[in-house]
Amino acid sequence: MIKPIPLHDHDNVCHSKKRIGHGGRSGWWNKPTFIKTVTHTLPDGQKLRVKAGTQIIDRFWRHLRSHLEGNTAGVGSATLRRRVRSAQWTYWHKG
């Protein structure tokens, strides 16, 4: 049986400190992990090392999705390229 190829690999990071017990005593804390390096195996067998939990990239993707909301331009079209560059400029110059 052939295994289906997963569409997305979801990585997780810990954004808050966690209480752990040590030797029967409580009050020890693990520091939060905001970014960690993970390895993904591609369908052709290659391994790809990426950083998980990069908040800046996630924030830009959220901004881009909201900027392109209601867009009907096709993939690779000049209109879409222009709107993506516009979103990039507004992200760089906001505030």
Description:
The protein is α+β, with helices and mostly antiparallel strands and 95 residues long. It has one domain. Helices cover 29% and strands 24% of the residues. It has 2 helices and 4 strands, in the order ββββαα. The strands form 2 sheets. A two-stranded antiparallel sheet has the order 1-2. Helix 1 (55-67) crosses helix 2. The longest helix has 15 residues, at 78-92. It is elongated, with a radius of gyration of 20 Å. 0% of the residues are buried. The model has no long low-confidence stretch (mean pLDDT 77).
Strand content: 15-25%
Low-confidence stretches: none
Q: Tell me the number of helical segments per DSSP (H or I, 4 or more residues long).
A: 2
**Major sheet: arrangement of strands:** 1-2
Structural class: alpha+beta
Helix and strand string, N-terminal first?
EEEEHH
Helical percentage: 25-40%
Biggest β-sheet description: 2 strands, antiparallel
- Overall mean pLDDT: 77
The N- and C-terminal alpha carbons lie at a distance of 54 Å
Number of strands: 4
Shape: elongated
Radius of gyration: 20 Å
As for the number of domains, it is 1
